[in-house]
Amino acid sequence: MARPNSADGRTRTSIQILIVAGLCLFFYALGAWQRSGFGKGDSIALAITNSGADCDVASNLNFETHHGGESETSGESEKAKVFEPCNSHFTDYTPCQDQKRAMTFPRENMNYRERHCPPEGEKLHCLIPAPKGYVTPFPWPKSRDYVPYANAPYKALTVEKAIQNWIQYEGSVFRFPGGGTQFPQGADKYIDQLASVIPIDNGTVRTALDTGCGVASWGAYLWSRKVIAMSFAPRDSHEAQVQFALERGVPAVIGVLGTIKMPYPSRSFDMAHCSRCLIQWGSNDGMYLKEVDRVLRPGGYWILSGPPINWRTNYKAWQRPKEELQEEQRKIEEVASLLCWEKKYEKGEIAIWQKRINAESCRARQDDSRATFCKSAEDNDVWYKKMEACVTPYPDVNDSDEVAGGELKPFPQRLYAVPPRIVSGSISGVSVETYQEDSNKWKRHVNAYKKMNKLLDAGRYRNIMDMNARLGGFAAAIESPKLWTMNVVPTIADKSTLGVIYERGLIGIYHDWCEAFSTYPRTYDLIHANGVFSLYNDKCDAEDILLEMDRILRPEGAVIIRDEVDVLIKVKKIVGGMRWDTKMMDHEDGPLVPEKILVAVKQYWVAGGNSTSSH
């Protein structure tokens, strides 16, 4: 049968169209899998992808006329706006951490390294290109140790950190031996040392924060111990360190401890870590250490390795005056004492403190004139809020043995245990019953997704984002050692639920989707957007949100957008000009449900090249 053009393609029966569309979506993904080197031997998939089968049929399905939305016409006014590629020098563009813009802001307290987003008139309305030679990253766990050179072609760290075993350049790949400034013998041995003090291996410690993470080898090696680390570092002279982390398949964002609060709720992390992170912990009245205390769970641990710990032995090697290092450690110890942290360990260049489980075990600081307490109502109101040198109070307890805020079960039990914030009723309108119903609903949704895309369980998608995570049901249902999810709670959401997500043993961040996300281009394999466009209707332009999704999505990455049908029709029209292959799907409960699903695959294309579905 001759291949139809757009005019006579409707001569196929609807059954034929659905069969071909389903096969094409499935085999297209398999073909992409093989082209990345992941599924070697899948010659059938590649043959079908490259054959004359009409795989454009998915994007030609005339869904609108089936569901009473705005019907398509052939008029010029109805054609999708075509988004052109940006100039190739925007390949690694990070809108809110642009280097040129950063230099116009004050250096004091790292203000210039914080988020500074472009005004409306300076936003790009083009597609960020991948660099020439870009390939799909290696699957986990190989990606932990190897990154294709073409994906992040920056050799500076291989020279600057050569003796510290961070990263090595070997032919067409970078190799990450697992070393770091403070663990040249490897992250595993370093973590073993920490595990002699901290219960890392039994599920008690699940969520971790790595400040000034470098290429995130600490987080990468914690993964095998079922600990998930949120790593951050600024976009600075250590070119592409966060980009390397994400190419390795390790959770990371561009960030810095500066003048505004970290975008995480209070009592989020079981453990926080600084390995020679160059943060002045004792400065500004201990403000940065107090901010770590805010996000650290009662009973959580703080690890500091490197200067000034063991300064008496190392001051010559560090080429710093003894008196300066001594004063630096004195300030840290003073702030830790004010926070009522207990020092559990100091050996070599590593010191570990533990936060008390409640205020009852630290009554003395209530009368300490140096302790200025934050207003408790503000402890989760952090987006662009100025950091203050105040102490975040503990939630109240009934006795001295109770963990403030509630005790968590070890992971993985905590994934579906009812989070303490739900039990206590602190999330308005969310009861234990509604939480459990939400969890069951997302199990059904994810099962339906897996039927749409057979690769969700295959390790094809490592870095996943949920743009409107709510209670974390999607991430919990899809949870696997093969992947991780960045759970985003929009700052305009009606409920601040990110604390619940952390209590489930998941990670996430606050963000406003009217602005660019704090990451490099091409850092997510799959993006899930549930109700995002309805939420932001009349708040900002859907076009800007979709262009940002395209920026952070890898070539041949997948998108699942769940929303009301009328919203999705508008979204589908915009993405028609964005080099995405799309297909509209019914809700798993049938065509009468007004909520629909738009699935998409971003085409493979690179700077200076043409759009194509194959390499």
TrEMBL record:
Q: Name one GO molecular function term.
A: methyltransferase activity
Q: Which terms under GO biological process does the entry name?
A: methylation
Annotated membrane topology is: Single-pass type II membrane protein; Single-pass membrane protein
The record ties this protein, via InterPro entries, to:
Put_SAM_MeTrfase, SAM-dependent_MTases_sf
- Keyword S-adenosyl-L-methionine carried by entry: no
EC numbers, comma separated: 2.1.1.-
Q: What is its main location?
A: membrane
Give compartment(s).
Endomembrane system; Golgi apparatus membrane; Membrane
Q: Does the keyword Acyltransferase apply?
A: no
* GO annotations of cellular component type: Golgi membrane
For the protein in the UniProt heading, the enzyme class is transferase
- Give the keywords, sorted: Glycoprotein, Golgi apparatus, Membrane, Methyltransferase, Signal-anchor, Transferase, Transmembrane, Transmembrane helix
Tell me the PANTHER family matching this sequence. Answer: METHYLTRANSFERASE PMT2-RELATED, SAM-DEPENDENT METHYLTRANSFERASE
**Protein family:** Belongs to the methyltransferase superfamily.
Tell me the protein's name: Methyltransferase
Q: What organism does the UniProt record list as the source? A: Eucalyptus globulus
